Amino acid sequence: MDWINSNLKDRHWEEITKKTGINYTPHEGFTFQNILAQGMIKHLEICSEVGEKAYREAKFEEQLKGIEMEWKEIFFVLTENKLTHLSTISNRN
Predict the structure, then answer these.
(1) How far is CA 77 from CA 68, 69, 81, 83, in A?
(2) 92 closest CA partner among 43, 2, 78
(3) How far is Cα 8 from Cα 45, in angstroms, rounded to an integer?
């Protein structure tokens, strides 16, 4: 079942709880059996949608971190044009 994944954050569990009316927030002793006993089978479509969304968000966050790391090492300098007195951006790398 794709909704059981490490990408699920508190906001995703809250969304599942809100949409199903059943509290699925993980806690000490939280097991798959507990989820089934609460009637999760009736809500597999909702859980699958939220799980897929969590996966896409995690991949997007990973990509953003990569972009941030790449741009972290790039420095720009404003250089004023002597004729126009307008500043332009130049790369110092």
Answers:
(1) 19, 19, 13, 18
(2) 78
(3) 16
**pTM of full prediction above 0.70:** no
Query: CA 40, CA 35: separation in Å to the nearest integer?
Result: 6
Domain boundaries, the chain: 10-91
pLDDT in tens, 17-75: 999 998 877 777 777 787 788 888 899 899 889 999 999 999 999 999 999 999 888 88
Q: Are 16 and 24 in contact (CB under 8 A)?
A: yes
In this structure, what are the phi and psi dihedrals at residue 8, rounded to the nearest 5 degrees? Answer: -70, 120
d(CA 66, CA 16): 29
3-state helix, strand, coil in the chain (%, to 5): 55, 10, 35
Q: How many CA atoms lie within 13 A of 62 on its CB side?
A: 7
